[in-house]
Design goal:
Elements (H helix, E strand, L loop, with lengths): L1 E4 L18 E5 L8 E3 L5 E3 L14 E7 L9 H20 L5 H14 L4 H12 L13
Antiparallel strand pairs: 1-2, 2-5, 3-5, 4-5
Helix pairs in contact: 1-2, 1-3
Length: 145
């Protein structure tokens, strides 16, 4: 069981953040992180029994926060990896050039810039592109003439 946490509710989805491969997930503390993820440092977890909805007298369980590793998708598709880095660089340039006067937009742009500065942002963009299906490789077989 895992909970996916995306930063799309604050307006970042229009920049491509918060869709596709989630950068942050929550997994049962007793479980290993999914492939391509690692336990967050500093470690963050929440105990189910701390919430009022938790049934009294039952054994508690907890979730731990895990983050996408920067190398999570390395080597899977070198062309897509290079394109994801190009998209990341272009987004950083575009966000640096255009300043917003509206406080909400300025805050959103600032958040997206901070996301793009994270080491795992290229992997997240690559995963988003791959998950879209647009960048799926076409598998061809030999066809008899």
């Amino acid at each position: 069981t895992s909970l996916l946490v995306r930063r799309s509710s604050n307006g970042t989805a229009k920049y491509g953040s918060g869709s596709g491969v989630p950068v942050t997930r929550w997994v049962l503390s007793s479980a290993e992180p999914p492939a391509g993820y690692e336990i967050s440092e500093p470690r963050k977890r929440f105990e189910a029994s701390n919430y009022p909805e938790f049934p009294a007298g039952e054994e508690s369980w907890s979730y731990s926060k895990v983050d996408l590793r920067a190398d999570a998708l390395n080597g899977e598709d070198p062309e897509l990896e290079a394109f994801a880095e190009e998209v990341r660089r272009e987004l950083i340039l575009q966000l640096a050039q255009n300043e917003e006067s509206d406080p909400w937009q300025a805050s959103t742009r600032s958040l997206v810039r901070s996301i793009l500065q994270q080491p795992n942002s290229r992997a997240a963009i690559q995963g988003s592109l791959r998950m879209s299906g647009i960048f799926a490789r076409i598998r061809t077989g030999e066809v008899d003439a």
